[in-house]
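Deliverable D2.4 — example input (structure tokens):
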């Protein structure tokens, strides 16, 4: 197995980030597969046919999509750590991609090809200016298939970050890392397992490790850069959960209707003012419910500037049916 080893300083500086590049890579993989992720089925139905038509007109994009969707090792050119935290832009991420040399791009593609589970070739990548071509292909998929859906995706990813941040605040990094993927888990006092395949351990520098959620249903990959360090991309939890009617009734009997509504609502982060407005109750009532839920360990409050944002804990999420 491969471990990410973090010093105390690296651990203290680790944080969450978003990556439009990683999200676009995930979209390419999803659209090239025969079946959509269950919680992305509407998006898949809207975009898959037009994506296929585009592949027929663009041999480079078709070859790239086949490579990304049929390999266990994504090419280095599309797995770069984000540099803008939660506000990372695709343009900033594609700048170093476009600056890569043809030799660097081909070498990265060849490594991915050796880890492919189907027979492929790289005739589609025999031309020149491969860095700009790769950046252009990713930008095309982003603008046509991801950007129109980005607001919804970003909301889901921000909920994921708030959920993990709640675990981090309440229990520390080992609990926050738990369940990020089928293989990720905390090992010992300073290491994260992110792959069960053999490989050299990575020693995370003082800049810390970035955790980057994507809406892809499965799959985890590590981004490495000499300037931006390391980022671990992992699948976010599903975007929404339907609460069964019988479960809602039982929860209301247990903790009361008002607190049950509040707990279910807090599967998405919110401030006391937002909660009072959405639920149509007074700020004082919300405050009392929040205090009781917090004392019971069902929610946590995280300060962001002058605001306190509330989010369910693992215990609360389990009780609420998440």
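Example output (designed residues):
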């Amino acid at each position: 197995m491969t471990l990410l080893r973090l010093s105390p300083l690296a651990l203290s500086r680790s944080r969450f980030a978003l990556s439009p590049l990683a999200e676009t890579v995930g979209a390419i993989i999803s659209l090239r597969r025969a079946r959509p992720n269950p919680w992305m089925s509407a998006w898949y139905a809207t975009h898959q046919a037009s994506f296929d038509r585009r592949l027929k007109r663009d041999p480079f994009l078709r070859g790239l999509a086949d490579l990304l969707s049929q390999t266990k090792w994504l090419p280095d050119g599309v797995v770069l750590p984000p540099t803008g935290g939660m506000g990372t832009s695709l343009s900033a991420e594609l700048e170093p991609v476009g600056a890569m040399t043809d030799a660097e791009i081909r070498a990265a593609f060849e490594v991915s090809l050796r880890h492919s589970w189907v027979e492929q070739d790289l005739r589609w990548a025999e031309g020149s200016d491969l860095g700009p071509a790769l950046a252009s292909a990713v930008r095309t998929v982003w603008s046509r298939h991801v950007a129109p859906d980005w607001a919804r995706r970003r909301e889901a990813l921000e909920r994921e970050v708030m959920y993990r941040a709640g675990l981090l605040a309440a229990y520390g990094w080992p609990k926050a890392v738990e369940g990020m993927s089928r293989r990720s888990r905390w090992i010992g006092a300073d290491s994260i397992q992110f792959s069960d395949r053999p490989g050299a351990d990575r020693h995370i520098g003082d800049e810390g490790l970035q955790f980057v959620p994507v809406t892809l249903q499965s799959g985890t990959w590590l981004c490495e850069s000499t300037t931006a360090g390391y980022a671990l991309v992992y699948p976010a939890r599903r975007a929404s959960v339907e609460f069964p009617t019988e479960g809602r009734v039982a929860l209301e009997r247990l903790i009361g209707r008002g607190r049950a509504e509040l707990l279910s609502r807090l599967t998405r982060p919110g401030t006391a003012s937002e909660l009072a407005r959405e639920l149509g109750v007074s700020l004082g009532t919300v405050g009392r419910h929040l205090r009781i839920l917090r004392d019971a360990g069902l929610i946590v409050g995280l300060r962001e500037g002058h605001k306190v944002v509330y989010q369910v804990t693992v215990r609360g999420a389990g009780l609420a049916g998440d």
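The two ends are 30 Å apart (CA to CA).
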